[in-house]
Write a structure and sequence with these properties.
With about 350 residues, the protein is of the alpha/beta class. Helices cover about 35% and strands about 30% of the residues. It has a 6-stranded mixed β-sheet with strand order 10-6-1-2-3-16, with helices on both faces. Bound molecules: adenosine-5'-triphosphate and magnesium ion.
Length: about 350
């Protein structure tokens, strides 16, 4: 089996290859304290990746190489993630008496029940979660499968940049892993609270509901900052690159805030509200949540937390995963602060460096 969750390593960079950019992050740990060693965000040409499919491997490889040189790290091992429609994750039950090898055999033999692709075209991995709450003879196992072609293309681009992809994770798990760095922002550290972590990226909005620190629900929607970029291009006759830059620096005509940005933020609130309604109807013991934590590039829009809070009447904050970390001067603390909310997936991937210590 080609490993999806991958092997463990001590020194590695988290590499979030997403629709708008390549984000690199390296963490170290001393005792309970984390340190940001290196980071870089490098914009991706819009045509390099579409719908999580690599359209231009060379452009992607070059972008990763630029991110690596900008970050100035010597670490050459990377944790990357697959995501999108071709990634399937499922929780299944297996007899607890099976050895690792036997479990692998059984999962392979039964894989066609879980996965709609021919088994020889997928990368498959599994991890035992723990005893099954329903049956004491069984354990719960999480299966992750992805089209092998997607994994291979991604790895090839990473290798082109001189990195070795030693861990291939699933993006939603990386996001989940990163939520430990948000605990300090949650009321009562998240204990007995329902918290919605909403990552509004360029193309996709991922919502994850945590209760008592555990994920109880996830949902992805096609919505993101690209819509705002397109509104800016249309309204001011700008190119994609111009609009992307202007949006981040805020250098746009005076009517931008009221005529363009306000509409987008209203849309964003509506999208989040809709996702919450889906959650309330799917998991009926919940009818309220205690807090929204906004992440992703769109969380970096000035004042967006206040607008969302006013519209949805739910306490809302912007994710600050590095608030309790020290930051190396090489990691350019001022720039890092501006990109902080968009680095959650990268945080979850960088954290894979400490897997072994956890075990
Ligand atoms: N300061 C800012 N103000 C407004 N928009 C911003 C700001 N910073 C980033 N963005 C927007 O956020 C989006 C990028 O967010 P992010 O980096 O989370 O997306 P991504 O991870 O590349 O996309 P996806 O997760 O959808 O694949 C872009 O549309 C970008 O223009
Ligand atoms: Mg993203």
């Amino acid at each position: 089996m080609q490993s999806l969750f991958g092997k463990r390593s001590q020194q590695l960079v988290g590499l979030d290859i997403s629709s708008s950019s390549v984000k690199l992050l390296e963490l170290s740990r001393k005792g309970a304290r984390f340190n940001v060693e290196a980071y870089a965000v490098e914009p991706l040409p819009p045509a390099a990746l579409s719908d999580k499919q690599i359209a231009d491997p060379k452009a992607l490889g070059e972008t990763i190489a630029r991110a690596l040189s900008r970050a100035g790290t010597r670490t050459r091992q990377a944790a990357i993630a697959v995501s999108g429609a071709s990634v399937i994750t499922k929780i299944v039950e297996m007899p607890k008496t099976l050895s690792g090898d036997d479990m692998e055999e059984q999962i392979k033999a039964e894989a066609d029940q879980y996965i709609p692709y021919p088994i020889d075209e997928v990368s498959l991995d599994f991890e035992v979660l723990g005893p099954s709450p329903k049956n004491s003879e069984m354990v719960e196992v999480v299966l992750a499968a992805c089209r092998r072609e997607q994994v291979e293309q991604l790895c090839a681009a990473v290798e082109l940049a001189g990195l070795k992809p030693t861990v291939v994770d699933v993006e939603s798990y990386a996001l989940e892993n990163a939520c430990q760095f948000l605990q300090h922002q949650m009321p009562d550290g998240g204990r007995q609270k329902a918290i919605a972590v909403v990552d509004v990226g360029a193309a996709v909005t991922s919502m994850m509901i945590l209760f008592d620190g555990k994920t109880i629900y996830t949902r992805d929607q096609n919505f993101g900052g690209r819509q705002l970029t397109e509104d800016i291009m249309r309204t001011y006759g700008m190119s994609f690159e111009e609009a992307t830059k202007a949006k981040k620096s805020g250098s746009l005509p005076e009517n931008y805030a009221t005529d363009v940005l306000a509409h987008f933020v209203a849309d964003m609130a509506q999208q989040i509200d809709r996702a919450l309604q889906f959650f309330f109807s799917a998991v009926t013991q919940y009818s309220t949540i205690d807090q929204i934590i906004l992440a992703g590039g769109c969380a970096q829009i000035p004042g967006v937390d206040v607008s969302i809070q006013e519209r949805l009447q739910i306490p809302t904050v912007v994710a600050k995963p590095f608030a309790q970390m020290s930051i190396a001067s090489r990691a350019k603390p001022a720039n890092l602060a501006q990109d902080e909310a968009s680095l959650l997936v990268a945080c979850g991937l960088a954290y894979r460096a400490f897997d072994e210590e956890k075990a």
